[in-house]
Amino acid sequence: MIYTVTFNPAVDYCIHMEAVRVGEVNRSKGEEIFFGGKGINVSVVLKELGLRSRALGFVAGFTGQAIELWLKGSGIDTGFVRLEQGFSRINVKIKASAETDLNGQGPDIPAEKLEELFAMLDEIGDGDTIVLSGSIPPSLPPDIYEKILEKLEGRRVRAVVDAAGELLLNTLKYRPFLVKPNDFELGELFGVKPDTTEEIVEYARRLKGMGAVNVLVSRAGDGAVLVDEGNGVHVCGACSGTVRNSVGAGDSMVAGFVAGCLGVPAADGQAWDAAAGCDYGFALRLGTAAGGATAFSHGLAGREDIFRLLRQLS
To answer: Is 143 part of the annotated catalytic residue set?
Structure first.
């Protein structure tokens, strides 16, 4: 089973406008509502790729109830801890000549509720995968990712960490199966600005030396670079298309890569043999296709678009 953790789920209220005039009444051309958060986004794209996952995290209030109902209606298992106070955040995304985001803070998470989430981790065992992604709310301890991996230590669990800065660095001692910084985040970790593939490979290998098993570096329009567990280097160019969406592309890449490693049903309904080991080149291409499919859509990637782009990369 794949488990995703989203500490701060959100309702994204997207408003389409010609322009925003500050201090005046503005009227939209249209609105959309999406339910998400980084771990939830991973679960949604995994579902599109034919893989089950269980979304863990915290929800509160009427917005939290809506998030949970939508996920269950989409066929995704959930294991959310319900908070008695506050409500799950609402993010306002203004799509005009320039995109403007107004992101909510979300509810406080008391210590006893965090203990409830940790109790759910007992169901994770050998062969399972856990995805930890994104920043953490200020009410949680800054070493929360470390505490989760410490609890899982000794079990044969693949840990995927998609985070930045110290949040990422502090998990490396637990040898996560995959870390996925983008090129800017990779540079921030070492105080540099890597521009070339060679420079990205150099600093990705430094992360491997610090404990990461696989390092996947996303590069937006320049594609992605993977340094795998055997120190092999894989480079994948970006997909061709018109960028319409800046939310969830990195999460989709994580979902595609994980699906590629675990064995995803192919477009014709067949599945390759994951027991033979991960084909990292294929996993990188599938992750890149999934990320591109989200970037070229108004929401998260759909299965048909993912496999269409995958054929473009093959």
So the answer is: no
Q: Could you give the CA distance from residue 283 to residue 164 in angstroms, rounded to a whole number?
A: 22
Picking from 144, 151, 163, 162, the residue whose alpha carbon sits closest to that of residue 125 is 151
Q: Of residues 12, 183, 228, 251, which has the active-site annotation?
A: 251
End-to-end CA distance of the chain: 28
| DSSP line for 162-192 | E--HHHHHTTGGG--SEE--BHHHHHHHHT-
Predicted confidence pLDDT, tens digits, the chain (314 residues) = 999 999 999 999 999 998 898 899 999 999 989 998 999 999 999 999 999 999 999 999 999 999 999 999 999 999 999 999 999 999 998 988 888 889 998 999 999 999 999 999 999 999 999 999 988 888 898 899 999 999 999 899 999 999 989 999 999 999 999 999 999 999 999 999 998 999 999 999 999 999 999 999 998 888 899 999 999 999 998 888 888 877 888 999 999 999 999 876 554 444 444 445 688 999 999 999 999 999 888 888 889 999 999 988 87
The span from the CA of 175 to the CA of 124, in Å, is 17
